[in-house]
């Protein structure tokens, strides 16, 4: 591990100027006092998993939501926190680096200093490895100075992405005890926040006084639920990738001889691919969620692309841009089944060279059909979350090859009459992850950092910092905290040999909602994108002038104000109580009972385990 | 070919704002009158080729330099052009699309309109193919409106990159005659400008009245000589690539587990790789020019990288970033020789499948040693300029594999003691080519467009539009024109079976000057870059605020004012004449003769064919 963590760096003009940018705080977090309002105790969206989760998290399940309000807010039950004792907080970067991660630290540091200059913040060096090994750096203004509004996790680095084994959990606890930490903040995505919840539970039951807080930081944008609208890093990643995709579109249209197949980083879900499509209008995108839902095979997808190429050729076009999410390989049924067999054999210790011989006849036939480079990539060991090494599997190359073969066939058969098909493949991911964070991500992360402090000041454990109403300006943002357990679901079944994963509560990556407005927007325009070359170039990430305040389409088109609605429901219930007070007329009471009984009926049906409204299309 | 060329597009905020940006003109081009001063007749830097060139270009060789001055400039012999008859001008995009190409058209269009509103501009559709087929679009303010300051060549598209065969040249001439063109402007790189010179010569000897003008537009930055300081597109490409390389550096430093091997587009020369290195400070760059000059083999380069990996491991570092120019493959002696054999066999009609069997024993052994993906890429047919298909040959993957094998060997032998070596490969090119042009490229291209008009107004043929003093603000830029033949050289020898290329005058791509200041800057810092992770992030291309006025390091560090020096020399000679007028003292005359004789001696030695000061290192 390198020894120059946290050192000051010599940086060019733009970076310097960005380092001087001071994100704004929403009104509720300005000043030194903050009012906390607790809502009702939480449940989970997945009611069928409710019992499993509450059983696994006896100390931390069912805790109430928390809303942070300005001290002058007129809310009866809210509690003002005026005492700010000296506290000691640690934080750890866990999971893929996402632009904005540094600002969480900065926000947290500033909040600590504002409320008590004697409080201290420690960063674990090299991520979880530092947490286990008690290697840390005390964060100071000097350490922070060159990392404000900067990308990467290089202030401290990151290593493994999990805190899960008994050994790891005990090492983390020992670290917190040795350092006498009042709080531990975990910066990461779905896996890291699931680990944060587990750690919180373990600490609580072991009477370890350290409170654990999670922060939703992941470029994948898949930590999305009732409480979390988007993740730190997603905005930047989509902007940088959209810039490049748009450049590729312009390039395709200028030379008119290439089809570009671009695979996008983003893990299992296709959020990045969807957002980039809405930003750049490439000709086609194959979302993993569509493939899953329609159970499209490799042959179906190839045919779909070939039909598009052929239709474009009929319009005189021999160029195009096709986007593919990196998770696609796991959504194609036959490839998924093949991967399951391979991973099963690997788990049983079968050496790589022997795997192809031990596959079932069906899987073996598919394996042989695939080109050598792709076979090698399928044989890579799976990642810690048991998924395939998505970043290393060049699905875009496989599709390009299959499409080329099929188009050549159609050409011979006289069905395709266009020019020679030429494909160029790209994988966009690593080149975006280290970007300077956008203004939105800089602000979002900084405010989340502040919220982490308030969660700890309120003595909460096992919570995630949340901000809603994000599509509006910062002064309209609503700050809160939600128990991480309320975001969990339980997988009810599992394929293949991974039977041990059944029933373990976790935050699962949210997939693209095929009934959501963002997807609807895509469907409405897909035909235009396909034929008309309606390319759109949002340009490079700007920090001043036009474009600098742009936000993600997928954030802005959805009407997501869950927290606001929860509050509105509460006010309806209160109003019913106020109207139907003892002494009201019999008629009013009968009407209320009848109406409420009908409400209960509807909700009971909708929340019964057999109700399939969520998954049926 | 698609039918929607030149259509207006719906574009997002930043693009709209950019479309409204109006580049400034240097003082000499402001107003409606321009003064032209003609310098001495030109020669070539390569005196040995002088005769061949003058013989090949009897009509257009040796024409004088032209300088455009403001009408008030006090220069005795300058000619003011006040008559601006209606003219008809055509233009064609030729060669790889480069950011800024559209602005050349815009500048030319505006200059035409300012000087005579009845003049007209025609753009050939689909590049050279449109030129040959007489397919064109009349350029209007409406056509231009959504392409101002925008990337790509998609206003009109481009196809083949050459105008060379008799058939092509005749078709071009027929087009110019049918359209009654007074001028034809060719926008492109070294190949296209060589073709422009040939066309000018052919037109002149055939008494075709169309004057041909070239514009140096190429992202490769390799059209560099006494008259041309840099090319339109180079600045943008380097900025976009540097942004991505810097992101990759931040990523490497955050995760500390990958070595990134990044190949950069830029053809034979390594200008893009050098500039990006100075911008981003990656750990290593392998310049093709270094490899050529030191005759490094594949083994040498692998060893060099492995030694670096090992040294970094000794400093506890298991990550890094290595840049490679796409031209590298042709500079490694054994790969070059192998490519020559392959291309020779291809020229003789040997089918691809049989080539490996017909290679010489030595080449065959090397071919077998190379991994299958790389063999396939070497077998691709060469491009029109007889070079290999550089963009398709994944040299970065080959090096990554060779380094991995060697590091694993050293690990077993106990020499390398670091962590497991993991490489990730990238090719950056297509994703930068279509970018919105930087402010510099927008300005440079726009002003060059204006100069094209003045070249035609002055009745010049076979000239290239030039601007010098580019590192200074626009109001200090010096505008001129130089005969394209003065930029030509003649290759004195050639390897292998391509003997037909001997002796043909052409503009050859300028390579990185290993004695230049930019390279010196790299060498001074190479040791720091290698070990210290002195990464620098210039950030995404900005259009407002800090960074937006940045210019390329390679442009700014060189002291290039060739045109200024030519003028200064003229003034010295004039001064000698003034001092040593008939009637001066015998002493003064003797001193003058003695001094001048010594000057002549020195210059004669330096310009003799055997003098090797240019190529000796």
Question: Can you put this structure into words, describing what you see?
Answer:
Two copies of one chain form a homodimer. Helices cover 44% and strands 13% of the residues of chain A. Chain A has 617 residues and is an alpha/beta fold. Chain A has two domains: 26-69 and 86-233 and 437-507, Rossmann fold, CATH 3.40.50; 235-432 and 509-539, Phosphofructokinase domain (Rossmann fold). The radius of gyration of chain A is 26 Å and the shape is globular. The interface between A and B is large, with 75 and 75 residues.
Approximate strand percentage of chain A: 5-15%
Fraction of residues in H or I helices of chain A = 40-55%
Unreliable stretches of chain A (pLDDT < 50, length at least 5) are 494-501, 612-617
Number of helices of chain A: 23
Q: Give the assembly state of these chains.
A: homodimer
CATH topology of the largest domain in chain A: Rossmann fold
Main sheet specs of chain A: 10 strands, mixed
Number of strands of chain A: 16
Look at the structure and give the CATH class of the largest domain in chain A.
Answer: Alpha Beta
Note the gap between the termini of chain A.
49 Å
- Helix and strand content put the structural class of chain A at alpha/beta
Question: What is the 3D shape of chain A?
Answer: globular
Number of domains in the coordinates of chain A?
2
Q: Using the CA coordinates, give the radius of gyration of chain A.
A: 26 Å
Strand order of the largest sheet of chain A: 3-1-2-14-13-8-7-4-5-6
Q: State mean pLDDT of chain A (0 to 100 scale).
A: 90
CATH architecture of the largest domain in chain A: 3-Layer(aba) Sandwich
Name the largest protein-protein interface in this structure: A-B, 75 and 75 residues
Domain Phosphofructokinase (chains A, B): 88-453
Cofactor (chains A, B): Mg(2+)
Family (chains A, B): Belongs to the phosphofructokinase type A (PFKA) family. PPi-dependent PFK group II subfamily. Clade 'Long' sub-subfamily.
Pathway (chains A, B): Carbohydrate degradation; glycolysis; D-glyceraldehyde 3-phosphate and glycerone phosphate from D-glucose: step 3/4
